[in-house]
Amino acid sequence: MSRIALITGATSGIGKATAEVFAKSGIDLILCGRRQEKLDEVSGTVSSQVRVTTLVFDVRDKGAVLAMIGSLPDEWKNIDILINNAGNAHGLGSLDEGDMEDWDAMIDGNVKGLLYVSKAVIPLMLERAKGHIVNISSIAGKQTYANGTVYCASKAAVEAVSEGMRLELTQHGIKVTNVAPGAVETEFSLVRFKGDESRAEKVYQGFDPLQAADIADAILYAVNAPARVTIADLTILASAQSAATVIYKKQ
Ligand code: NDP
Ligand code: 8X3
């Protein structure tokens, strides 16, 4: 019987690539995001391979999260895999100059949003005493860098949530994997720099950055591990990257 995965942030980047590799592996998909038209595009590319449904909600809206996931018909309720991927950085600047709206977006989306989605899905997994939750953290959750303090704090919180989930859920047959990527070429920097394309492109120039598919392949490896194996924590860097802020770039 095929498995069902719910992926947040499936409209772009790592979430979209995960949908694509899961579809190739025959995993049915509940694709979530705020942009319906992008969800429809992703759904269109994978629907010949697996069953797909879409849910449009903002992870920051706890009422919408609970209502949308709660409204899934019975045939979609047996969620085997939750990919808590939705998130972004907003801005890059010091605390004294930082925009508090940006802070709200990061803490509310990357931390509270992940918790709201988990709160909606965990009871469905507990009922069946099985499941696998994959939280997308970041190298920024392990190493704080200047001007990224709030984003780093949000991802450090994801690291803590992954540990806490594993402590609470292992006894109930639910696996928890924390994935911490380095620099991945997605819409991430475009969002961080508020649509400034040339600034976003510069982040990935002069080296061979990770691609979303590289992270998706690692996630697939984790969810396909034998029942006796939990891949607890994966840190994945571009070969040119040695730490959060150290990337060897060709001049
Ligand atoms: P993208 O910007 O390409 O994708 C972000 C995804 O998150 C989109 O699908 C977006 O969907 C969704 N999303 C963002 N905010 C919300 C929200 N409030 N409610 C619902 N969905 C939301 O970036 P990535 O693929 O790179 O990012 C995915 C995850 O990977 C994030 O958690 C990010 O922090 C993490 N990460 C990224 C790295 C990188 O270098 N790219 C490195 C390490 C971690 P929509 O806009 O349609 O709602
Ligand atoms: C995204 C990677 O290093 O820009 O989480 O914070 S980084």
Automatic annotation (TrEMBL):
Recorded superkingdom: Bacteria
GO molecular function: oxidoreductase activity, acting on the CH-OH group of donors, NAD or NADP as acceptor
Key words, A-Z: Oxidoreductase
Protein name, UniProt field: SDR family NAD(P)-dependent oxidoreductase
InterPro entries recorded: NAD(P)-bd_dom_sf, Sc_DH/Rdtase_CS, SDR_fam
Family per record: Belongs to the short-chain dehydrogenases/reductases (SDR) family.
